[in-house]
Structures are given as C-alpha cells and as structure tokens.
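Why predict the complex rather than its parts? Because the way molecules touch one another can change local conformation, and only a joint prediction can capture that. The input here totals 230 residues.
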Amino acid sequence: QVQLVESGGGVVQPGRSLRLSCAASGFTFRSHAMHWVRQAPGKGLEWVSQIWGDGSNKYYAESVKGRFTTSRDNSKNTLYLQMDSLRGEDTAVYYCARDGQQLMKYTMDVWGQGTTVTVSS
Amino acid sequence: QSALTQPPSASGSPGQSVTISCTGTSSDVGGYNYVSWYQHHPGKAPKIMIHEVNKRPSGVPDRFSGSKSGNTASLTVSGLQAEDEGDYYCTSFAGNSWVFGGGTKLTVL
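Output of the joint prediction:
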C-alpha cells in the first residue's frame, strides 16, 4: 500500500543543521510532487515546501526560505529536507505528504506519521 | 501568507449536523477551487476528507461535504458520529504555496 515514513528528527541546538528523510513506497514516486508540512506544539499545520516530481521546481514558505532546502532522490524513492540555521520556532512535528497530481489537484492526499524536531540549547 | 481563519471549536450531538468555516482572501480560497479539508488525530497522519472544494475521496463517508462561497469555504458533517471527533484543518492553494487554517476541534457531545 501507499506509505510514507519520515525519519531524522531529534534534538538540535539553535543555529545547527538537521536533515529529514521521507521514504516512499507503494506508488510511482517520481510521478508525484511532494510536500513538507509541520505542526509546532499546540499549533496548527503549516505548509513548508513543495518539490516537483522531477525536482525541477521547489517552493518554500517565507518562514523557511533561505534556510531550508528540499530535495529528492527518485532512484531511492526518498524525499529530503535539509534544515539549516535552525531556530526555536522550527520546533515541530514534520510531515511529508504526497501531492495528488491529476487525481486530487493541489492536494496532499497521503501523509506520513511525522518526525519530531526540537530546537533547544 | 496569513493563515486561513477557522473557529477553534465546534460541537454537535450524534445525528446532528455541524458546519466548519474557513475564511481566506481572494489570493487563496477565493482565487482557486483548490480547497482541501483534513481530519487529524494527534500522533497520526492527517487524512484527506475533501479536495477541490467539494470532492470526496473514495472511502470517505458521504456525510462529509464541502462548499465555497467567495473567500469562505465550509465543511459540513451530517449525521455526526462519535468517530468524527478530531481536529479538522482546511488548506488552500495560493499560487505556488499553500496556506492552512488554524484548525477546528470537533467534539461529538
């Protein structure tokens, strides 16, 4: 079945870096754009980034632009989020989500269970 | 991009109907027919309930319906059931970005 599994979360000091991964299975990974979405403690969901299926285009929320970089390795069916210059406000559960493409346009139709990032000294 | 506005809470008794609103601007909700609704239980993956304003994915009960008027989208849950409890989020495409609502906690009394 379609599955997304995030990993790489943990506790990191402010100003340091962390890389998250999202392993995809059960579908043709390269055919789907992918998203990162986060949820800070006690807060709502916040869209972070999208990358097209071929990796040719990437979009970011203003809150992470210039600090976070999304990439993918279609040969490994894996999505990445490189997070640099981390701040306390980046503390959140990070979800990866599949874009529904033509079947569900501009929709995140499948989500992982998330990985927790805590930025603290 | 500011978050979409949702009521923080909503409630209803079993069998009743409840509607959750989601208000944005002409740059997001009002500008595109790409509003989605998600059900989220803490610690679990969010689940798509409605996409493209009013389309229901297979497996989602027809008790769930969506609509939009101007800059406000709505999710209606008819015939409330206990398993409908949870947090509901709307989101809208906003031109190479997406914006979420703050979430609504739905309680079945």
